[in-house]
């Protein structure tokens, strides 16, 4: 069947017995949630979701860049298979007839709707759409989210701008004046008016905290400037980091701002996270109000992580923990792991087979992830020995990186090791400050992990555009 797959011969459960699905995603979100232990983040709605679901503490994207990550997650296929490695690659041209997650649910009789960014979309322009036209009964049309509402004069007197720091803006007016508030409001409207004879698959993709860091002023007020600190790191942190992984390797992401500008941008990032959390809360509250909570599987995830100065980095597209790891929560009614945290290694590839399993739908036979049902029943269970992530860096994305994360280790290669190798021991070094790749004491571990990378992630054949 190639990579198209089929759901061969299995019979789905009767419509009345099928659970609903609510998939919520946040763009460029690191593990900066209260439930993930961030010291100042205020995210009460997602924290509450974690308490009625399972919070996965070691979940990883397959490619920390918007289009590659989302194409992989929504197709259930690794980037080696999708050949989507930048925002211009087209999943549907690379794999004609690919059956994406929402399209599959639609074929199985679900009412499907999309509000916001689920597949790739340029933010804030509303262009570059890689949406699956066959996935949705209804998809809210994309648009440029600008102009933003009027600005409130900030108490933080730090000049912001692309050259000086990351741009941020405190806006006036209600939450619905910005697109994430609009997505939440209209998604609730769809829930209220949907065809109640069908189970639903509702996907809500929030833009924030993707740049620009713009949110209503009240969310900035949650974060006094003096509460914002910069990540601490050794003075020589960069010394053992290979060139492709360093600050400056991706020119557009080069961090040159002052410490005060970085603190102001971190404050703005957290304000955007709190704004996004509030909009997630609007949708979750509607589920409860409409009596849908007890029969709706809720999945919340970032598409990849984000750097806020760790290792001197800002933005995404790195293979350090902060970029590869994602916040990931599943609340599945009737499962036994409610309110617990799991340290099981998870890949975003697992979303597709998990939802098929929980909904009683046949899973396409080409999916490359695993169902997390057993972990939802017992969060102490582990289903993966390793999680894999790939990235491209460099002025022209010429450096190809691949990394494997096990419970203890992270091993990263750049161009199969020709442009650098990294090895980090998370038991002793959870922030990945000490590269052990040249330490003979760990030669056996390094050899084993590099062999695993070569086996699992061969070089990607770039699709012709």
Characterization of this structure:
Belongs to the sulfatase family. The chain is of the alpha/beta class and about 475 residues long. It has a single domain, classed as Alkaline Phosphatase, subunit A. About 25% of the residues lie in helices and about 20% in strands. The strands form four sheets. Strands 1, 2, 3, 4, 6, 8, 11, 12 and 13 form a nine-stranded mixed beta sheet that branches. Helix 1 packs across helix 8. The protein is globular and about 65 Å long. The two termini are about 25 Å apart.
Please name the defining characteristics of this protein.
465 residues; alpha/beta; Alkaline Phosphatase, subunit A; 9-stranded mixed sheet; 4-stranded antiparallel sheet; 17 strands
